[in-house]
Amino acid sequence: MLRLVLLGRPGAGKGTQGRYISKKFGVPRLVMSDLLREEVHKGTELGKEIKRYMVEGKLVPDKIVYQVLRKRLIEVKEGFILDGFPRNLNQAEWLDKFTQENNAELTAVLYFNVDEIAVLRRIMGRLMCKKCGRSYNIFYDPPPDVRKCECGGTLYQREDDHYEKILKRLDVFNEETKPLIDYYAKKNLLVTIDANKGIEAVKDDVSSILDSLLRR
Ligand SMILES: [Zn+2]
Q: What is the residue range of 16's domain?
């Protein structure tokens, strides 16, 4: 059984690789931001509280994050792929405690290592279609026309994908999340994957790493 944590800078391809692992190995993917949004949609007391933080643009406190995650972790029986959690050392320690208490120790922590320059190319190059939501990348996957999607919709760049915004997200990663790399390396759980390669090459690497972990 696979119990994985995915780490990586924004734009490292964690989402794509997580979906790939989930499909190929039949492991549910728990994306922390999705779990919080689902709770809001359900309209529970907890969801209402989360919504208040989101509306004010504040970070949801760890205590609430733990409650939401604990519920899902207890439900899943086929292992899990965690994306967007843990984000800092406190959260990592909470996860350690949870996995120990529930006999659900982590199999590995996959760190998708990508250069900051590559991140800028991936994120700043992204163009979205207003009509169908499809995304392009002007460097790797250019649209047929710089102004229009295949469907005829207008293309635009998301606010979050602007240079200054990306730098901010990279700084948050370097300050809060990067220490987790040392933390998991000390526990012999860290597997570093070169995520500067193309998506398909990274998938091949991920697949062979997970195959060998499952054989252990
Ligand atoms: Zn379109």
A: 3-28+76-115+171-208
The one-letter code for the residue type at 121 is: R
Distance, in Å, from the CA atom of 82 to the CA atom of 101, rounded to the nearest integer, reads: 18
The verdict on whether 14 is a catalytic residue reads yes
Please tell me the distance between residue 152's alpha carbon and the centre of ligand 1 in angstroms: 6
For 183, the token pair is 């933390």
Indicate whether 11 belongs to any domain: yes
Are the CB atoms for 21 and 79 separated by under 8 Å?
Answer: no
**pTM (2 decimals)?**
0.89
User: In angstroms, what is the span from residue 159 Cα to ligand 1's centroid?
Assistant: 18
CATH of residue 17's domain is: 3.40.50.300
Catalytic site includes residue 122: no
| pLDDT per residue as tens digits for the range 77-99 | 999 999 999 999 999 999 999 99
Q: Is 29 a known active-site residue? A: no
Count up the domains in the chain and report the number: 1
